[in-house]
């Protein structure tokens, strides 16, 4: 029995078949289905050309028409439907959009990166597997479809993909792949950083992360990744210390910055083209790590991090040579905080002003709120209006003296 995402896509396959075309589920969804994992996007391959696909469905978006990809919207779901294709000339790897449509499913599967990603499945769940991807799934092997050299010249990103799948699936990489990576990793320097970033962060999320980092090291592939060529100690340290998956990109960036002697967080964020959100959270992580180094696990460290960054913080601390803290410990400290955010302070700026009416509105309000916040967190002031009012009046007296 196919899982729900496939079931929901069957009418799309039917529509092709009823008009005399072939259509199959392909790629990651088939792989993950065979692994018994929950599946992400359902992708479809067909021998219908993009214009035919667009004529067969009411709602379509030509998202990558040069690559033969049309987005089909059906019953609230989106499906990437791609016409069977091959890269027409693998030496032209700098132009991945250089494709030719073909009529046979097997030719389409043959141009894909890894055997485990080169399977198709029909609407009944029958698997088409010309490159023994299923066997590699069973034995835990990352192998290219055909020669690794050819596949990696078509798209150099595939070298990094091979390593990231070995991490995510905890699979071994074939010698053929390792040898090709050693020989051709410099081709990665031609790849858009945005594409590298996606694979780089996914590489840290798998249970095989330690092994994957070891591969980056042994094959020298890290030398072709942004900044790592300048900071060899970073990759060496990551390889030695990371034993468990890191699911937060900001934790990865914070770690790299903490381990760098010469490069700042900003350098890493810029080179890997990270979003502002990642930058903000990584900054928070770094500040908290440095406070943690100074004073241990204080309320203030946990408060500054906030609920959402606790796991990322734990992962960073665990991967540096610092005293271990567990996630449970962090949550305990967080739950016991007298306040968990500024909004919970029992007075606001307006009330502060009414406590000291003879001072005009100004920067003192922010300064006082911060002092109140710190005193509450340090356990030196209780978070209720009267107590704060008394303390504020004392501070004012002291300032007047
Ligand atoms: N450089 C690439 C990228 C993708 N593919 C093929 O396109 C499919 C879809 O790629 P993508 O969506 O990037 O990855 P998934 O395999 O679906 O895996 P995930 O969603 O976990 O990233 C892959 O399975 C693979 O068959 C490829 O051959 N070469």
TrEMBL record:
A single GO molecular function term of this UniProt record: hydrolase activity
CDD domains on file: NT_ClassII-CCAase (cd05398)
| Its EC number(s) | 2.7.7.72
Q: What is this enzyme's catalytic activity, as reactions? A: a tRNA precursor + 2 CTP + ATP = a tRNA with a 3' CCA end + 3 diphosphate; a tRNA with a 3' CCA end + 2 CTP + ATP = a tRNA with a 3' CCACCA end + 3 diphosphate
Q: Which residues bind ATP?
A: 28, 31, 112, 155, 158, 161, 164
| Superkingdom of the organism of origin | Bacteria
Q: Which cofactor does it need?
A: Mg(2+)
Where CTP binds, per the record, is at: 28, 31, 112, 155, 158, 161, 164
**Keyword presence, ATP-binding:** yes
Q: List UniProt keywords, sorted A-Z.
A: ATP-binding, Hydrolase, Magnesium, Metal-binding, Nucleotide-binding, Nucleotidyltransferase, RNA repair, RNA-binding, Transferase, tRNA processing
Keyword check for Nucleotide-binding, yes or no: yes
Q: Which HAMAP family match?
A: CCA_bact_type3
Q: What does this protein do?
A: Catalyzes the addition and repair of the essential 3'-terminal CCA sequence in tRNAs without using a nucleic acid template. Adds these three nucleotides in the order of C, C, and A to the tRNA nucleotide-73, using CTP and ATP as substrates and producing inorganic pyrophosphate. tRNA 3'-terminal CCA addition is required both for tRNA processing and repair. Also involved in tRNA surveillance by mediating tandem CCA addition to generate a CCACCA at the 3' terminus of unstable tRNAs. While stable tRNAs receive only 3'-terminal CCA, unstable tRNAs are marked with CCACCA and rapidly degraded.
Miscellaneous note of the record = A single active site specifically recognizes both ATP and CTP and is responsible for their addition.
Assembly: Homodimer.
Q: What is this protein called?
A: CCA-adding enzyme
- Native organism: Alkalibacillus flavidus
| Native organism taxonomy | Bacteria, Bacillati, Bacillota, Bacilli, Bacillales
Name the gene behind this protein. Answer: cca
